[in-house]
Amino acid sequence: MTNTLHFRAAGGIDPGRVHEVNQDNTLILARPSGDGEAAGLYVVADGMGGHQAGEVASRLAVSTMERELAWLLRSPDDEDTEPSLPAINAEFPREPGQQAQEWVIRAIKRVNIVIYEYARANPVEAGNLGTTLTCALLQGNQAVVANVGDSRTYLLRNGTLRQLTEDHSYVARLVRDGQIDPQDIYTHPRRNVITRSLGHRPEIEVDSWMLELEAGDRLLLCSDGLWEMIQDDEALTAYVRNSEDPREAVEKLIAAANEQGGQDNIGVVVVQVEAGEEEATPD
Fold this sequence. Notes:
The protein contains seven helices and ten strands. It is of the alpha+beta class. It is globular. Helix content is about 30%, strand content about 25%. It has a single domain, classed as PPM-type phosphatase domain (Phosphatase 2c, domain 1, 4-Layer Sandwich), CATH 3.60.40. Strands 1-10-9-6-7 form a five-stranded antiparallel β-sheet. A five-stranded antiparallel β-sheet has the order 2-3-4-5-8, with helices on one face. Helix 1 (about 55-70) runs antiparallel to helix 2 and helix 6 runs antiparallel to helix 7 (about 245-260).
């Protein structure tokens, strides 16, 4: 007998208390375990740019991620649909997982091209549009986590919340170089400078990681509108850990970010990893 996992998730966006236009977008796609091994794709994108350009960028990001990777989550009984990625085996790799990692990286690079080409075709409307993005692709007990920019993915395991991604920002670089303390990122005069984002150049580097999941894990994906407002690590952990389910966690997190000032748009996805029924293994 082998233990299976399944996933429950919820997401939400909120404009916050300062901005009228919400430039954050989220994506939740799931395949339940009844249609084969449980799988899910979860994305948070935080757009940037004047007027509504950031909203366009983040919307293009989530729609392109869906178009590029949704075929991985279809039921085995569905008709085959050719992905726009290079021809590859549609069976999700179980080990070692490098192929899944490549699919995610290719999809994010495709997002970059889509936004970049939109900006070139619509220079007036686009302005300096771009977006950050963080995502998690889950199937079975494996996850691929990736990011560009300062939207983050965290893992809650055994009561401890740990940031999996690394921020691509000027202040994060200073912290890594030991030039400022981690708490200084919230007050540094250049705290809003992003060193890597999608849509500004035809080529982009994507950071990615493989993760083995365990029952009881929770993933938190969020834009800086959340983590910059809830700066206390213990408070952030408590909201994710103590909520009954992902929906309650999302609602509490958004409310807390607004209570702390709501200085930016807020995008949040929470994924709960649960033990499923055992499956018989062949002799």
